[in-house]
Design brief:
The chain is of the alpha/beta class. It is built from 20 helices and 17 strands. 39% of the residues lie in helices and 12% in strands. The chain has an eleven-stranded mixed sheet with strand order 15-14-13-12-7-6-4-5-2-1-17, with helices on both faces. It is found in: Cytoplasm. Its main location: cytoplasm.
Length: 571
């Protein structure tokens, strides 16, 4: 799109002599072709460009004529960025918003029409969408009538506050998405009562105080992702999956990962598996005095848990009475938007800068870098929304526990991160029996004999539900797949008590290879999938017995109260 079409000089003023900007046009075909030259093997067919140009001119002409005939702006636009009355009451702003939306649609269709290999096309579409989202007139004070009106109404106070918030964020090194001062881990988030009963350099093991007189004899271990802190599963009592498990009579243990610092920069995948999930399983079984336990892995926590159980299977051990995988990738063939960030060149660069091959030695992947990457997967919701609210309107973001957790980032050791990138996202070797050696054992996920509950979220952009479903074809034990509504976090954290959303369960337990075939035959049930999962987990918990009066054991004495020290360490 020509720079003039989206340039700041297009901001019209609402006067009797209202003037529209120059009539919008698309760049010529030669300019588009030149812009695509850096992308090898990619082209925009001439007929596609001609069709788009014709459509654009037709819609732009209609928009132009409609604006010329109006003495005032039209109805509010459906796009929430322009939903304020300020946009509909200002004729120039209303036209500019409409023109932006037309440009955005056209650029998106142009990116969609590009021909080339799938990954390059995905990268182009992602880059175009980032540019389009950044170019929204709502993001700029000179083009945003809502922010301008607020500045006039407050005598400039909103702008002064916006500058203060901007400077505070510059000093903090990140964009504020919530009021961090409103939360403290252990006081009003991560408050479920329990104790730390084991710790090493890699994790602390938390055991939670029973809330029932009796508990299932088989303990329950949760392995959260190591790229986030565990308390997404324990934000508040009313939406805590941890508390829900405890309330349903499960003796619940949770791993709390250490937030790596420079002393942990050389950690490898093998070291993490051996010293974290394998050790946690050993300790939980020892404390509970049982031969088996139920297990749950969330996101990459599920990936590392399944890897650990495959290592144990190779050693002739089957400690898992059940395995729950929440939004977990085991087959990395279809990883959604994250795939665009991974290729041989990018992985090699990481290996040479922070991996074991780095000339300067292993390093850390900073949590702030990961957080920024994930935010720009949904830039309108997690970036520009706060740029406008915080800096243009001077409105401090409200307190929101989920976004507080989201901003409480964690570091990753370079060698571990590089191994994970190469062997899963890039080469997709975890699903291949015997291809990978972890902790000295050939990994075969099919050797895990435990029954498996596999959950995917229908609108998940981190782990597409079809990719979560692919685990049904790898694991050989009895399997149940459930599809929940919403996204990666909101789909999982859907408390049963609120009875929101819905979930889908397959017909007759059949799990065809094609996930769409499964979905077509699935039945939708209103409410949370938690109840379905709880009934399933209860069937694998064993007999009920008197709840323990204290956490830990003689050998594994209480170290400190939950949530422990490790979760409180900032990145």
């Amino acid at each position: 799109m020509q720079a003039g079409v989206l340039g700041p000089h297009l901001r019209p003023s609402m006067t009797d002599a209202f003037k529209l900007p120059p009539f919008p046009t698309l760049p010529d075909f030669e300019s588009v072709t030149a812009a695509l030259k850096p992308w090898a093997g990619v082209e925009l067919p001439l007929d596609a460009w001609s069709r788009l140009q014709s459509q654009y001119l037709e819609q732009a002409t209609s928009l132009w004529n409609e604006a010329l005939q109006k003495e005032a702006a039209g109805e509010p636009l459906k796009d929430r960025r322009f939903a304020s009355k300020a946009w509909s009451e200002d004729q120039g702003a209303h036209f500019l918003a409409q023109l932006y939306l037309l440009n955005a649609r056209t650029l998106g269709e142009m990116a969609e029409a590009v021909q080339g290999d799938a990954k390059t096309r995905a990268r182009i579409k992602f880059a175009v969408q980032q540019m389009v989202d950044a170019a929204a007139p709502s993001n700029y004070l000179a083009l945003n009538p809502e922010a301008q009106r607020l500045a006039l109404e407050t005598g400039g106070e909103s702008i002064a506050k916006g500058l203060q918030l901007l400077w505070a964020d510059v000093r903090r090194g990140k964009l504020s998405q919530t009021d961090d001062s409103a939360f403290e881990v252990g006081k009003n988030v991560a408050t479920s009562e329990g104790s730390v009963v084991f710790e090493n350099d890699y994790f602390q093991l938390l055991e939670y105080k029973p809330l029932t007189k009796e508990v299932h004899e088989k303990p329950f271990l949760i392995v959260p992702p190591f790229i986030n802190k565990f308390y997404i599963l324990d934000l508040q009592p009313e939406n805590s999956l941890i508390r829900y498990a405890v309330e349903n009579g499960h003796r619940t243990f949770v791993m709390s990962w250490r937030n790596p610092d420079e002393s942990c920069a050389a950690w490898t995948w093998d070291e993490l598996v051996e010293n974290a999930p394998l050790k946690a399983i050993e300790v939980v079984l020892a404390i509970a005095g049982t031969k088996q336990l139920n297990t749950l892995g969330f996101c990459v926590g599920g990936t590392i848990l399944a890897t650990a159980l495959a290592v144990l299977a190779a050693r002739g051990q089957q400690p898992a009475a059940s395995l729950t995988l929440l939004t977990t990738l085991l087959d990395f063939e279809h990883t959604g938007i994250l795939d665009i960030f991974v290729d041989e060149q990018s992985v090699k660069l990481r290996e040479l800068t922070i991996g074991a091959e780095s000339p300067k030695g292993p390093g850390l992947l900073k949590g702030s870098e990961l957080a920024q990457t994930f935010s720009f997967l949904r830039p309108n919701d997690l970036v520009w929304n706060y740029v406008v609210g915080n800096y243009l309107k001077g409105e401090a973001p409200p307190a929101f526990d989920l976004l507080y957790w989201n901003g409480d980032s964690t570091n990753l050791s370079g060698p571990l991160y590089c191994w994970y990138l190469r062997h899963t996202y890039l080469q997709n070797e975890l699903k291949q029996p015997g291809k990978l050696t972890v902790c000295g054992e050939k990994v075969d996920l099919g050797a895990i004999k435990a029954p498996v509950y596999i959950y995917g979220s229908r609108e998940d952009h981190i782990v597409p539900w079809e990719a979560a479903y692919a685990s049904t074809q790898l694991l050989k034990g009895p399997k149940r797949f459930v599809l929940g509504a919403s996204g990666h976090i909101a789909g999982v954290i859907n408390p049963a008590s609120k009875n929101k959303r819905s979930y889908w369960v397959g017909k007759d337990g059949k799990l065809p290879k094609d996930p769409q075939a499964w979905l077509q035959a699935a039945t939708e049930t209103p409410g949370s999938w938690w109840r379905d999962w709880s009934a399933w987990l209860g069937g694998h918990g064993g007999a009920l017995k008197a709840a323990p009066k204290a956490q830990g054991s003689r050998k594994f004495a209480v170290i400190e109260s939950a949530p422990g020290r490790y979760v409180k360490t900032p990145a």
